Amino acid sequence: MTSVPQQRWVRIIPVATVMYAVAFINRTNISLALPAMSRSLQMNSVQGGMVVGIFFWGYLLLQLPGGYLATLWSTKRFVSILLLVWGCCAVGCGLVRTWQQLWLMRLLLGVAEGGMYPATLVLLSRWFPQRERARANALFSLALPLSLVASSPLTGWMLDRWNWRVMLIVEGTFPLVWLIVWIFGIYDHPGQAPWVSEEERQYLEVTFRAENLAAERGGSETYWRALLVPQTFLLSAVKLLMLTAQLGYLFWLPSAIEKTAGINNFKAGVLFTIPFFIGAVSLVMVSSHSDKLRERRAHIAVPLAVGGLALLGGALTIGRWPVLAFALVCLAAIGAFAPLGPFWSIPTEWFSRKIGGSVAGFVNGVGNLGGFFGPLLVGYLNKRTGNFTYGFGVLGIFMLVGAALSLKLRPTAPLTPRTVRVSVSSPTSWRPDGPL
């Protein structure tokens, strides 16, 4: 294996990761702008939570169709359409005049972004075998923390230099620019890419055929049967708790920093990057260790437990020791990001290639409703109590419950090594999800 070329790591992962980073910037950049937007559009904290969270109801709509279309049609073409539409919606968020108009634009932005994640998971499953998949998913998921590390100071600077409208319009053009790179850089599977060497293509073909044969030995698998098994619902519950905590934490942290420290947008943006740098490092470390041991459950549960305890500690100490509280809140990013690589390896390892994308879409769609409930819950508790202590404390409890449920997930069985004889066809005729 060490002699097999690794071009897929430098050709596919960076393009997909930057695309996801652009999507995450467009969905989260209002977190830094929320105080100024609330004043400009006369929103209270509950309305602000609704504007933040409505994105995820729209996001739900294309989860199942996204995975299905990527499997049967083309990830490249499907995501290209999405990039164009969500760029227009992201620019539109900067042109609104009332909070109700912003609510509508955020809903449409969620619909436009909705099919991207399950479609890209299907793409990665066609390029990276199981023994590499947690690392591939982790590098793709690095878009979340690194997009915030890279964009938060820029977002804060634009807010101080101009206003939230200029910031949203400028950052809304990012997907339109990246659409060009995506079209010329991405191929749906190795058989289409002209830069794949014969050695790398044969390695992928043999490995994927072995994995497909092992998956199909479990019996016939229907679309609805895969979606209705208990493990799919358990995965969805874990994702719901994880995302409720992650996005409630993410969207309200800048407001908490500004309220506690009394600093300008640029300095708040710089402080805002610290947790996500920690999240990025922990994501890579946990995912690499998960692939090394071929274990998923504990690599989801332990980071969630660490994050939950840290967030609870931060909520309890914020009144008396704000520096310690901020340090603990930064460590809570471990629970928000480190489990992502192992977690998203599970759908494409437990289910056959034709079903895995739809299962991932279902889990992601249900889980991302946490993006509605988390910000809304924190906004409601902040309005009732006048501080973020109770809101962040509840999010910490959600992480701990998610950690406990993760331990009930069925462990992934390693692929049994065996020899597979294949007849290597031309590079353009092979599809990893095609007939065996």
Characterise this structure.
It is a single chain. The chain is mainly alpha-helical and 436 residues long. The chain has one domain (7-189, 222-406): Growth Hormone, Chain: A, CATH 1.20.1250. 78% of the residues lie in helices and 0% in strands. The chain is built from 23 helices and no strands. It has helices at 7-11, 13-28, 30-41, 45-60, 63-72, 75-93, 99-113, 116-127, 130-141, 143-161, 164-172, 174-185, 198-216, 223-228, 230-261, 265-293, 297-317, 322-331, 333-337, 340-350, 353-367, 370-385, 389-406. Helix 2 packs across helix 9 (130-141), helix 3 (30-41) crosses helix 15 and helix 17 runs antiparallel to helix 23 (389-406).
How would you summarize the topology of this molecule?
Layout: H1 7-11, H2 13-28, H3 30-41, H4 45-60, H5 63-72, H6 75-93, H7 99-113, H8 116-127, H9 130-141, H10 143-161, H11 164-172, H12 174-185, H13 198-216, H14 223-228, H15 230-261, H16 265-293, H17 297-317, H18 322-331, H19 333-337, H20 340-350, H21 353-367, H22 370-385, H23 389-406
Helix pairs in contact: 2-9, 2-10, 2-12, 3-15, 4-7, 4-22, 5-8, 5-21, 6-7, 6-8, 6-11, 6-12, 8-21, 9-16, 9-20, 10-16, 15-16, 15-21, 15-22, 15-23, 17-18, 17-23, 20-21, 22-23
